[in-house]
Amino acid sequence: MGWMIYGANGYTGRLVAERAIDRGERPVLAGRDAEQIAAFAAPRGLEHRTFDLRDPAAVDAGLRGIDIVAHCAGPFSSTSAPMVDACLRAGVHYVDITGEIDVFESVFARHEEACRAGVVLLPGAGFDVVPTDCLAAMVAAALPEATQLDLAFQAGGGISRGTLKSALEGAAVGGRARIDGEIRTVPVGWRRREIPFPSGPRRATSLPWGDVSTAFRSTGIPNITTFAHLPGLDHAGQRWSGLGQRLLALGPVQYVGKAAITALVSGPGPRRRAASWSEIFAEATAPDGRTRSAALVTPNTYDFTADSVLRVISGLQTGEVTAGAHTPSTAFGADFVRRLHGTKVIEPAR
């Protein structure tokens, strides 16, 4: 099956491409910048294509002969919908690495279209949200009566331009949580708790993460809060105000912020990635107070993402997944995360 990495000139897209080449894969590399795509693909002897997602006819032409797209060009709030449209028109499976709640909701809303087209739509095939989604499914299966789910992570090793730009957009929206089955806007840092990460307890603060959308689809649990332990986040959440959020929502502020990110951020290098790891924690709670929890240790978020995307592509190539819109765990099961290199699930003794 022919498959494509769109956004192969971006930080994460390049990592996915490099990992694919190391494994003997020959993906088609694509993106909007002809010079950058050619400079990366040509020395490696890979086919490359250039097209702009704002031009539907060009996208249709760019997808000819392709069976699966690994969409790595964010922010996905702008790029996901036109690529999903094209994949549904062409009968091409769609995979992306978004962590954006509204993008997940938009893709899941097209489940019936995808079923009719015989297409798999699988957003969030990277660190956003494979480890959290699979761990959520594990603890939900262990406690089917659960009505509350807390998910938390801490990650080291730096951050890429695309991730920062998505985070900048998300900060303008404010906090989000799943409450009584509905996604609701809440204050940033509306909840704080201590998380028993494998490396030791850490104070974590709630923030909007993709599982506010995906974990509900995967588990059916109606109350979901996502947390992170990030240096300075706890105090920043306390100081955050509606005024600050409104300022970030202004177009000029977003433009200047994204331009600064483009100019100043390049993403972590191989040594920094190799020296860092991430930890995930999930806890499901039933109305009577019973809980089930589990934790996960993974490699650096970007190395994890590259591995995960390729495992997803492999699963689609072998026909593991039925048509429709999926989360990682509804596509491959909660144990999918156990297949990934360097990942360890830690479940407490009963």
Question: Could you walk me through the main structural features you see in this protein, from its secondary elements to its overall organization?
Answer:
Pfam families: Sacchrp_dh_NADP. This is Trans-acting enoyl reductase family protein. InterPro entries: NAD(P)-bd_dom_sf, Sacchrp_dh_NADP-bd. The structure is a single chain. With 350 residues, the chain is an alpha/beta fold. It has 2 domains: 3-127 and 304-338, NAD(P)-binding Rossmann-like Domain (Rossmann fold, 3-Layer(aba) Sandwich); 130-300 and 342-346, 2-Layer Sandwich (Dihydrodipicolinate Reductase, domain 2), CATH 3.30.360.10. The protein has 15 helices and 16 strands. The strands form 3 sheets. A 7-stranded parallel beta sheet has the order 3-2-1-4-5-6-15, with helices on both faces. Strands 10-11-12-7-13-14-16 form a 7-stranded mixed beta sheet. A two-stranded antiparallel sheet has the order 8-9. Helix 8 crosses helix 11 (242-248). Mean pLDDT is 87; it is low at 159-168, 235-241, 243-250 and 253-265.
